[in-house]
Amino acid sequence: MDGNGRWAKQQGMARVFGHRNGVKAVRETAEASAELGIEYLTLFAFSTENWNRPAMEVNALMKLLVDTLSKEVETLNENDIRLEAIGDLDKLPAKSHKALLKGIEDTKTNSRMTMILALNYSARWEIVEAARKMAIEVKEGKLDARQIEDKTFENYLTTKNYPDPELMIRTSGEQRISNYLLWQLAYTELYFTDVLWPDFRKQHLYEALIDFQSRERRFGKTSEQLA
Ligand code: IPE
Ligand code: MG
Description:
Elements: H1 4-10, H2 15-36, E1 40-47, H3 55-78, E2 81-86, H4 94-106, E3 113-121, H5 123-139, H6 150-154, E4 167-170, E5 189-192, H7 202-213, H8 223-226
Parallel strand pairs: 1-3, 2-3, 4-5
The protein binds 3-methylbut-3-enyl trihydrogen diphosphate and magnesium ion.
The site of 3-methylbut-3-enyl trihydrogen diphosphate has 11 residues, from helix 1.
């Protein structure tokens, strides 16, 4: 979800105004995804690197998280959406952490779609964490180093309960991964749009999905092998 700051600037407003207006895009995207039968929607809401922004902006984002979660749990329940989160969540401010855990708890029996918020998340952090945990278990004799495979590694990632994404959308014209789900995106289709996040609507999601449907996913095989 990128482009909130530029969107605000275009209107001659402070960056925070853009973040606030990004909430509508989240609502639209979540609702459209659930309606279409998408089972997992992951939103990159706050990266580990975002702490380096001005304190005022970080505080506003954390407050927005609390306010939005408190307000939108009802919408999530109405749409049968379960909320989950990945990232170094313990390091979030206490209030934000609490609101997040409450949102997760209050929606845990919903089953139409799982909406995963990546919060204080970075892929390198996640991969290093996984390596560290595995190393500790090897040392403690709980894990055999020679048996470590792709599947083993995946079990130590924050996404162990979710399938790899099929499609990644980045808004605002930037064409980068920015430390997002580096392991999981190995075979993901990438889609970039110039639309700034606060302007992102159902129609834009449909356009991305139509583009996705025209792609041939080969997973390393030849076109003929797929036929
Ligand atoms: C994305 O919009 C929102 C967050 C990272 C929280 P930005 O704040 O990055 O907006 P730009 O890139 O400055 O326009
Ligand atoms: Mg940005």
